[in-house]
Amino acid sequence: SLSRFANNAGASLERAAEVTKILTDGTKAVGVRLASGDEVFASKIIATTDPKMTFLDLVGEEACNASSPTLVAQTKEWQWESASLFNVHFALSERPQYELGLTDPDVDRSLIKIMGIESVDELMTHIRTVKEGGFSLAGSATTFTDYDPMQAPIDVQPGAAVACFETLAPYENQDGDWDEISEGYVKRVREMWSEYAPNLRDATVVRHYVNHPKAIEAKLPNMKRGSIKHGAYLPTQMLSNRPNPDCSSYRTPIENLYVGGASVWPGGMVLLGGGYNVAAVVAEDLGLERWWSEPDYVVEARKKGLVG
């Protein structure tokens, strides 16, 4: 895991230490204050929170203005995503068996199964419905235990499986309060999923867990309005504009403060690119030799001229 890798490299992790303030001295970041009142000082600080939390809440407008006349204004223009996600995780007595898999073995081998959408027009209708505040029963499913069997240990229930269905969803739902309507959606999801994997009709649901946009926001405060990428993918928020022109190199106008995470290039979706890139920048500023090698796919992309 990442934490084990970090520990092996000499890092010390504090897992339940809420940061309430990034401490500054003039135009320099010098440390952080925790919710406990403790203060931790460091020569370099990396923030992976969204821009508004980083600069407006944790640093503060006054400290930002001391370093840049444009940083606060740029940050206030940051836009959240127009749609979030609804997903339900099922612990099942058996893995989904897809009817199409009887004639096409690639169906069972695929990581993601798309269902409920049969054309580009239907996809566009799905997106429009969500953006207008509606719930559209179409999305994707993954059987996690096909790739990580330990999620359903065979000594607990042989043959069991863990699978997830996920779809775009509006933050403000025109059907009502998310907490009150989610279970109704779970039933509809299982009924639709069973059309593709008929054995799910009779499979036992050992347990299920629901995530909806407001639950995502409550669990992860960086994801305002359920913005799983910390902010919309817009021309004004991509490439050298992510998170803003002042900070797109992962360095910020505030000396010793760096930004990583989903709100920097190349964005979110479990790419790990933001963290990888900012680590290289910090190592360079510290005068350190990188002790890690580039992933093979980055090496290949570099050979093709796709990255600098």
Descriptive overview:
The protein has 308 residues and is of the alpha+beta class. The protein has two domains: 151 residues, FAD/NAD(P)-binding domain (3-Layer(bba) Sandwich); 136 residues. The protein has ten helices and ten strands. The chain has a five-stranded antiparallel β-sheet. A three-stranded antiparallel β-sheet has the order 1-2-3, covered by helices on one side. It has a two-stranded parallel sheet with strand order 4-10. The longest helix has 19 residues. It starts with a helix and ends in a 5-residue tail after the last helix.
Structural class: alpha+beta
Named CATH topology of the largest domain: FAD/NAD(P)-binding domain
Mean pLDDT: 93
Poorly predicted runs: none
First-to-last CA distance:
29 Å
SSE pattern? HEEEEHHHEHEHEEHEHEHH
CATH superfamily placement of the largest domain: FAD/NAD(P)-binding domain
Rg (C-alpha, Å): 22 Å
Short description:
The protein has 10 helices and 10 strands. The strands form 3 sheets. A 5-stranded antiparallel beta sheet has the order 6-7-8-5-9. Strands 1-2-3 form a 3-stranded antiparallel beta sheet, covered by helices on one side. A two-stranded parallel ribbon has the order 4-10.
Key words describing this protein structure:
10 strands, 3-stranded antiparallel beta sheet, 308 residues, 2 domains, globular, alpha+beta, 10 helices, FAD/NAD(P)-binding domain
SSE layout:
Elements: H1 2-8, E1 19-25, E2 28-34, E3 39-41, E4 45-47, H2 51-59, H3 61-67, H4 71-76, E5 84-92, H5 106-109, E6 113-115, H6 120-131, E7 139-143, E8 161-169, H7 178-196, E9 205-211, H8 213-219, E10 257-259, H9 273-285, H10 296-303
